[in-house]
Amino acid sequence: MNKKRFIFQLILIACLLTQPGAVYAQATTPVNGPVYIIQPGDSLSSIASRFGVNLDDLLSINNITDPNSISAGAQIVIPGLEGVTGILNTQLVEYGDTLKGMSRRYQVSEALLRKINHITSPNELFVGVGLILPQRDNFTPLSGRIQLDNSESMIEAAVLANSDPWSIQLANGLNGSWEALPGDVLFNPDTVSDSTNNGSHSGLPPAFLDASVSPLPMIQGSTITINVIMQPGSTPGGMLVDKPLHFFALEDGSYTALQGVHAMLDPGVYPLRLEATTADGSKQTFEQMVVVKSGDYPDDPLLVVEPATIDPLVTVPETDQIASLTLPATETRYWTGIFQSPSYFNDCFTSRYGNRRTYIGIGTEDKIFSFHSGLDFCGGEGLPISAPADGMVVFAGPLTVRGNATIIDHGWGVYSGIWHQSEIKVQAGQLVKQGDIIGLVGGTGRVTGAHLHWEVWVNGIQVSPMDWLNYNYP
Q: Which one of 260, 293, 326 terminates a domain?
């Protein structure tokens, strides 16, 4: 009898476990719409906004009762996209990508790309955003790039690419060879990109074989690396936001430029323009808008300091002096590899880069709002400070706000600033090696106590020093 009762209880438990219960994330995915794969950082409200659908409709069609239960990699159906089926993936828009180019590369009509991404103008294709693309089984994006010059027909380009004009015409959605215009980027379905034609996504002018920008999306306070490969005899230039780019040649024949993104730059879209000067002296340019996102920097507590250190009559000339010292982009690259911490305490920080700050003068109501332009390390008076990387000392002396200060030129527009020292151990014009002792920790200048403040400048902009401790630029 006990045995029968035990078997009955097991059957009862099994039945209860298989009964439908409350839905906390989503039920079986319906089949009446395209399926989107949730990306890291997505929320249901951001997904609804992105696809231009009602949030309640999105919840309803997916049987979601707890919006916070979604996770990256999960699949949800997107309502309201009649005629669209299958899986929708996200592909990051890179510099040089155009709507027409991505349509051709991924073999998706421009009309469909506009529909599922709610694009009303090609100018809305911003670098660093995710473009939604229908996923196709067993499909590899086209990568062999053909770009017609002014004296070349599509037939000639096809022959040079070991293909035929009909295959290229079909793959690129052309009604005839006459629709291929000079400068147009076409994809060859019969080849993959090679060392002379490797810009699979690029809609750049012919002088640029390829260009890449990283990291994407751009974040306030980040260091941006822009790499280009040029046609022989062509040299690059350009501008990001309002800063002229300085390109330097690498050993492999490519060029690179490093540029900081200001921590206080408003999130939004900004221009990145590349320019080429060709062998005959002519100019070619390409400009595209790139997305800059917030660094989500917190607020520091109110800081009470000496009034003179927030007096504009003092702070403005000193800031201008530092800006002029860190502006030149020296041709010599002194540093190699990752920077090292200048502090005796490598991973102990009292305040991080980017924090929003309000300073108030002692005994006054004078205030200034700013941001923390560097990294503050633990450790008090008299501790040694070492050079974070090889370089040339371009300034060593006392300042009102920054106290006893040292500036090191690492080359290529990259500088280190070491502030608030009790004692400076180097002098202007001196070459230093990574790890050399350059000073001692102090409490001079605008401080509330002795500490080491280290900042990194990249082409006239202070950036997060942590990036230079973690990544090898360029």
A: 293
